[in-house]
Amino acid sequence: MFDAIDKKLLKAVADLEGIPKGAYNIRKNGKLLGREISANIIIETNEAGTGIVVRINPGTLNESVHIPVIVSQAGLHDVVYNTFIIGAGSDVTIVAGCGIHCGGSKSQGHEGIHEFQVEKGARVKYVEKHVAMGEGKGKRALNPTTKVFLAEDAYAEMELSQLGGVDQAERVNMVELSAGSSLLITERVMTDGTQTAVSRNEIILAGDNSRANMISRSVIRGDSRQDFYATMDARAKCFGHIECDAILMGNGSNETVPSLKAKHPDAELTHEASIGKIADEQLMKLMSLGLTYDEAVNRIIQGFLK
Amino acid sequence: MLEIKDIVFSVPDLDAPEKGAQKTIIDGVSYTFEQGKFYAITGPNGSGKTTLAKLIMGIYDVTSGSIFLERKDITQLGITERARAGIAYSFQHPARFKGTTFRDLLSIAAGTEDEDKLAKIVARVGICSLDFLDKPVDSRLSGGEIKKVELATTIARNPRVAIYDEPDTGIDLWTIDPMVRLLKREQETQGTTTIVVSHNRAFLSAADTLLLIKGGRIAYAGDLDGAAELLKDLSACGYGDICEGESDVRCHR
Fold first, then answer.
1. Could you state, in order of their start, the residue ranges of all structural domains in chain B?
2. Which of A33, A39, B1, B175 has the fewest CB atoms within 10 Å, measured from its CB?
3. What is the ipTM, given to two decimal places?
4. What is the pTM for the complete model shown?
5. B34-61+87-240 maps to CATH 3.40.50.300
6. pLDDT at A105
7. What one-character-per-residue DSSP string does A265-299 give?
8. Chain B residue with minimal CA distance to A294?
9. Residue B170 banded pLDDT, cuts 50, 70, 90
């Protein structure tokens, strides 16, 4: 079912050595490559035929769904609309991710538009890795859009990463939180060469006692550019925090714009942001433990993006 | 064992009216540290104590003079090579890292990721607990906690020469004595040549030899009793003659 390139991409984006355990949906070059459902997790193609609907039955505990996407066909721009309905009281992990293998000179890309409805008291962990590889010169583009609606007391953790090979990325994350719900987003992006990545985040704290924490770590190598925008829009008694740090290496550039909007007197919003090179004191500490300069740089970046 | 010879360290004097003026921080210091002995370096603020320690580690390059470790000239070696030659350094204000844990630092220091070996080091250091291992060494650690991490990573190197720059900064009173005992124990069991930069009497009393630095020179080398008179004005500020009060605190206190 998988060729060597597929296997390499699946390993990179979903840590899969073969067919995953539990429910899965594997999409390759815009077509379904394989699907498996479980007693509690139903996956169907949507009515328009443009993506899938994943339904997690209420009360489903400790199950996972893998939905990796592979794009290896030259010139293909794959667009997919996926909907996830996470049933009340369930606790699941969804592993998504897209791997592009570019072998030619034509550009290739994937746009995953994901919508999550996390029902009352449900918990979901969403892991998304984006990777591009291949010896081709074509541009590799990944433009994901993720919309999340958290019902009362629901919890979502989103682990988003793009650690190499993607030439152009425009990410949009939109989250709306109801009363008592909480959100943790960690985003890690590394760019190099002339790559560009933009991340736009709009988090609406609509319900009382909702909590949101957004952590972004960027490493900008070569002449690449990364921009990060995040807005916490507080409309109730809530807590929101944005932490965004960017390390500049080489001649890259970065724009970081955290924005806090309190529209309720009991809103509590904070942010911390930094842009800069690796601190000398960090390098000196690791070198005084016997690492060379380059080894020290690598260890610091590894930890930062971990 | 560690010999410093006619060391001079000057930096551009940005406050001087004429361009290109130099300020001498270390002014021709020579000294031989003996194998397995405990040294305390003390002196007023701004006297050059930390600079001297950093020159030995290679964090600053000497303007002139030489440094020998076990008769080998290490003057031209960088931090990494000096670390590999057996010198370890505990910073007064340790670096904080986002995402790097105590375990990461300790593994680099000890050259192993083996859980048992790391646990043994933590036990040997004694002052920080095992559940510290997976804590990130970031801004959430208190001043005292990060100093304990710093101390542990220095000891984990099993150094021939261990330099501790003000190890008691941020440490609570109750931990200072155990810390002194720890450094003494390392000195005695591992034969570590130990150099502590400190104002704290607990470290000064523990030392075999006290070096009093004043104005970039060694003003005294010997035992604590002999230094009693000189130490009396240690509490006095070394910036007295240029101090302009609260509005211009040149000593950065």
1. 34-61+87-240
2. A39
3. 0.89
4. 0.85
5. yes
6. 86
7. TT-EEEEEEEEESPPHHHHHHHHHTT--HHHHHHH
8. B80
9. confident
